[in-house]
Protein: MFS transporter
Organism: Streptomyces sirii
Amino acid sequence: MITDRADGKRALGYPAAAGVFAVGMAGTTLPTPLYGLYREQLGFSELMVTVVFAVYALGVITVLLLAGNVSDETGRRPVLLCALGLSAASALCFLFEGGLPLLLVGRVLSGFAAGLFSGAATAAVLELAKPGQEAHAGFAATAANMGGLGCGPLLSGLLAQYTPWPLALPFLVHLVLVAMAAAVTWFLPETVAHPHRPRTLRPQGLRVPPEVRGVFGPSAVAAFAGFALLGLFTAVAPAFVSQTLDEHNLAVTGLVVFTVFLASTAGQLLTGRIGVRRALPVGCLVLVVGLLLVATSLAVTALPVLVVGAVCGGIGQGLAFRAGLTAVGGAAPPEHRGGTISAFFLVAYLGISLPVVGVGALTLELGLRGAGLTFSACVIVLAVAVGLYVWRRPLTDAD
């Protein structure tokens, strides 16, 4: 189903596709440092912040269930262009925000965009690699995902803190970046050999090809645990930084969130050096250490410890995430690769949404600190369990 890409149309290769991927994912986390401003302006609770965040994840999951494999049939480029259009629509919702309903619509549209990007952009980056570039392309795909997610809060935090129009300028800048990404996407080679319009749009669920099932389970559970940590930082950490640590600089908030995603990218880079077999269990172990540090920062109210926990947890998440994605993507047959990768991301985004809403609900009874400690304990148990499993039954580098 995938072309051999030997038609000389590879002037724009996998780095260009990775750049488009990064721009798209940056838009999904752009509002993160701004939630405090929205909370003051609209007067909603911390629970509602996590609900607004989780609505995004609900949009991702919906698309992955309904259309996670659509790029395997229609082609990568049309799906990427559609995702960029949804990203632009989301930015416009935030630009013209007049209350909570439009915020929710903007987050849902952003989730739809991320759901399309997750499978189609990852597959496009992998398939645009020339022979011998597969490892570099695998890193580019996961780094674009995590790097884009990290750059969103950093960009909006800096713009909101040091320029006029804190609730408008970040989204105006993103619209410009989306337009540039759309122009690049238009000239990307199509990697699906015979793209066609699917007859029906049906839920794909979590079905994966038989040859992938051996690696899918532990890889997806590790991704769930790692994305739960990312969800904590993108939805709850900004409130902890401002309310508990009394740090109200939005650029600092964005930098703290950026740190965990930057560390994730570093962890992904390390995965290529130590191999899939060791990266998954080691990543789970490092993730546990990071969660322990995050819990410590909550207990002693220390920003430096939170930053160190973000670095350590991000590295662990990156190690486990790239190892799992590499194993799943490598085991999937080309004609089902987009759908299989989408199923992997579906489990990951369950991790970034369900636990975070739980944290928001717990804040009503336990407060922000108590909810964070409870969350950390639960994810530590999960990460330890999957880490021990893959340590005893390791994946192979060839998976």
